[in-house]
Amino acid sequence: MGGLLKSSIAKKFAMALSGLFLVLFLLQHFSINFLSVISASVFNDVSHFMGTYWLVQGLLQPVLIFGVIFHFVMGFYLEYKNRQARQVKYASYKGNTNSSWMSRNMIYTGLVVLAFLGLHFYDFWFPEMIHKYIESHPEDASRYYGELVAKFESPVRTGLYVLSFVFLALHLYHGFSSSFQSVGWNDKYARGLRGFTKAYAIIIPLGFIFIALFHYINNL
Ligand code: HEM
Fold first, then answer.
1. 32-67 tens-digit pLDDT
2. Atom 23 (ligand 1): residue with closest C-alpha?
3. Which of 102, 116, 171, 190 would disulfide-bridge 109, Cβ 3.0–4.6 Å?
4. What pLDDT digit, counting tens, does each position of 174-204 carry?
5. Ligand 1 atom 19: the closest Cα is on which residue?
6. Which domain holds residue 17?
7. Residue of 61, 69, 124 to test ligand 1 pocket, by largest number of atoms within 8 Å of CB
8. Domain count of the fold of the chain
9. Which residues have a Cβ under 8 Å from the Cβ of 154 and sit 6 or more positions away?
10. Backbone region of residue 107 per phi and psi (left: phi > 0; alpha: psi in -120 to 50; beta: other values)
11. Which strand (E) or helix (H) includes residue 29?
12. What's this model's pTM, rounded to 2 decimal places?
């Protein structure tokens, strides 16, 4: 068991599982944020529920934060190990012969998404944690919509968000479809799902771009 956990196959497996978990989170996150385009009051209600329900705050949120940290720490580690292996074993490694730009640059597209998360946490998550748990303001179920919309007043921030979502698409385009293979699922059903994973990788980031631009334009 110890040997298995240490093996790089187990690490790739864990990397893929954490990626699949984050793919699910993205769908949930997108669905809730999309409500802000449809109705301010519904968005406020759902955000208030997510922000105050003990199961979400006490269990799902810590699991999510762990999943995010695990995914990028393991990503750095596997990249480091891959580079070591390439130097030793494949002196004439030609990266572009049978792989896509996306698959060869997962670490760089991932780094852009990580930088985005830094900005995004600064924008939303840290203020939210300070508001609720440090300054302990009384609950105000109508504040979420205004706080979100205010972030998209700045063209620079909106531009950075949009650019990051393009990199998110590039990252997901390879990551989501290859995760099935990494967890050992590679039969005809898994191959059949490839089209769905590629569509997801484009549609969800495009949806996030739409939300950001919608609020930016509405603010003009
Ligand atoms: C237009 C696009 C987006 C908007 C408007 C948005 C909005 C928000 C808001 C309002 C929060 C604070 C939630 C809270 O009350 O704690 C949040 C948290 C978060 N966002 Fe986003 N988000 C967007 C895109 C993304 C993307 C693309 C990712 C991942 C790549 C992401 C990852 C996260 C994470 C990990 C958190 C912290 C977890 C949580 O508490 O929900 N977001 N986002």
1. 999 999 999 999 999 999 999 999 999 999 999 999
2. 208
3. 171
4. 999 999 999 988 889 988 999 999 999 999 9
5. 125
6. 2-219
7. 124
8. 1
9. none
10. alpha
11. helix 8-38
12. 0.92
